[in-house]
Amino acid sequence: MVVGDFANEVDVLVVGGGPGGYVAAIRAAQLGRKVTLVDKGELGGVCLNRGCIPSKALITAAERVQQIKEADRMGIRVNGDIAVDLPELMNWKDGVVKKLTGGVGTLLKGNKVDVIKGEAYFSGPDTVRIATEKDSQTYQFKDCIIATGSRPVELPSLPFDGKRILSSTEILSLQELPKRLLVVGGGYIGLELGTAYRKLGSEVTILEGTDSLLPGVDPSLVRMVTRKLKKLGVTVVTGAMVQGGESSEDEVRVTAQVKGEEKTYAADVVLVAVGRKPNTDELGLEQVGIQLDERGFIKVDKQLRTSVPHIYAIGDVAGGALLAHKASYEGKVAAEVIAGMPSEVDVRAMPFVIFSDPEIAYTGLTEQEAKEKGYDPVVSRFAFQANGRALTMDSADGFAQVVADKESKQILGVQIVGPEASTLISEAVLAIEMGANAEDVSLSVHAHPTLPEAVMEAAEGVLGQAIHMVKK
Amino acid sequence: RRRRVPAAPSTRRLARELGVDITQIKGTGSQGRVTDEDVRRAAAALQE
Ligand SMILES: Cc1cc2nc3c(=O)[nH]c(=O)nc-3n(C[C@H](O)[C@H](O)[C@H](O)COP(=O)(O)OP(=O)(O)OC[C@H]3O[C@@H](n4cnc5c(N)ncnc54)[C@H](O)[C@@H]3O)c2cc1C
Question: What is the pLDDT of residues A359-391, one digit of tens each?
Fold first, then answer.
């Protein structure tokens, strides 16, 4: 420490106020710790400010437009054009974000968490320097939780310019609808936003390097989405390796190697969504000796401890699934461990949700994974076409599928593609966590007519007893 | 292959709190479910 430097002493220091950090701070405070939380940006992190929430707001608005267009099928005539006022839409979305980030601030205050707006940098194994707008001070902590999250990966051949070559952050705040939108990367972020802009009126092309959209997701689920994209008029180019691009006054041109052929794509803006990388590089972690894995994520154990035992890491920065609910769950575990509880990461069913059209959600094991783990799985699929509620919603594409252990009928995994899959997956998560078997789900009365009946019937199918499906 | 012990999240937490390894417990619940009682019994046995 520099002579004359005054160290503020804090009990638990949380670095980062995203869904990992703010939840960790609140749980630690609930357990009686004095907590200080520092964030250099806005509370709520990526998820609230430039991730989950704004993207879902745009997706909902875009879906509303689509529903108005399709209302004709129900005899609802909408005369005239549907006009989307993008600045006003963005305003509405910003209002939603503000309400939620404000709520996070209120919760932190209500739990007596000290919040500092500033950038943290480790100066030793139990000290950080926090640079605020005014000054820079040293804080000494007993325990620390690193929750600094992640940021978009830049393609060196197609660097972000904030005008035409954009990351997910900027595409969530466009003030003008692009006539032509090019999306580089067919992962969930590119797919969700590409679909939304298509529904708002843009011409959309998605370039994906591998041979399928949503690499890593069960192809039978992806197939339903690919089909709908075609219907919506989204151009999907797989096996497209982007070589580079250049923007001019009035457009951006991107070249890609597509199955051995060089192709050029012109657009008004290009969204580069090829992945995310951890915010570990400007934290001074090397001075503390915190170990990273080969991709730069912080290595943690089951209790979220880093290689320095009184420093924990949670959320995106700790790798694994880069999801908000995973970050929050880990935040609670880390806070509990700090408070002396024997908590550890003990998840049997992490839900994965993609807000595509139709939505995809899955948890637990796929049939393939179940086999690899040595189970003898039985798979039962129930189509939304046979679900009354889905038909009344005019949204019956897709299915719910249950993977169960043949012998015990224990539910091992659930995959859903279809309306409200994002909501439906919660029952599956609880079933797996509780060790429920297919009979438990099928004997639970599901309200009629509702979408969750599809999950119940898929479970009945495991027993060979679905009512609205004939045994093949 | 080691089967997953069927046990609710709260029961798994209880096992951690009482310092017992849930994979070593034979559940007495339906279809071998490990109950809170099973965990407490195993913890008591460890005490002896
Ligand atoms: C477009 C998009 C859509 C998404 N949609 C979903 C979704 O629907 N569902 C879902 O589960 N996930 C979604 N995600 C992912 C989700 O946003 C992240 O998994 C989640 O935000 C991770 O939370 P976190 O707390 O680990 O970190 P972040 O949310 O990244 O927060 C980290 C915080 O740390 C701060 N920080 C960083 N470095 C420092 C420093 N040195 N000093 C002080 N503060 C610092 C940052 O300012 C930031 O506020 C989406 C992401 C994107 C980009």
Answer: 999 999 999 999 999 999 999 999 999 999 999
pLDDT score recorded for residue A80: 87
Q: Ligand 1 centroid to A313 CA: how many Å? A: 13
Instruction: Say if CB A13 and CB A145 are below 8 A apart.
Output: yes
pTM of the model as a whole: 0.97
pLDDT (tens digit per residue) in A419-454: 999 999 999 999 999 999 999 999 999 999 999 999
Residue type, A46: V
d(CA A317, CA A298): 6
Give the separation between CA A234 and CA A113, rounded to whole angstroms: 47
* Full set of structural domains in chain A with CATH: 8-152+277-339 (3.50.50.60), 165-274 (3.50.50.60), 351-463 (3.30.390.30)
Alpha helices in A51-132 (DSSP H): 52-70, 86-110
d(CA A414, CA A429): 8
Strand partners, A141: A10
A139 CA to centre of own chain: 32
- Interface membership of B13 toward A (CB under 8 Å): yes
Of A124, A149, A132, A135, which Cα lies nearest the Cα of A50?
A149
- CA closest to B33 among chain A residues: A435
> Residue A205 pLDDT more than 70?
yes
Residue A336 Cα to ligand 1 middle (Å): 21
**Which residues in chain B are contacts of A435 at CB distance < 8 A?**
4-8, 33
Rounded to the nearest 10°, the torsion over CA A220, A226, A231, A233 is 180
Q: What is the pLDDT of residue A1?
A: 46
Q: Which two tokens stand for residue A68?
A: 């108005």
Name the nearest CA neighbour of A323 among A83, A110, A150, A137. A150
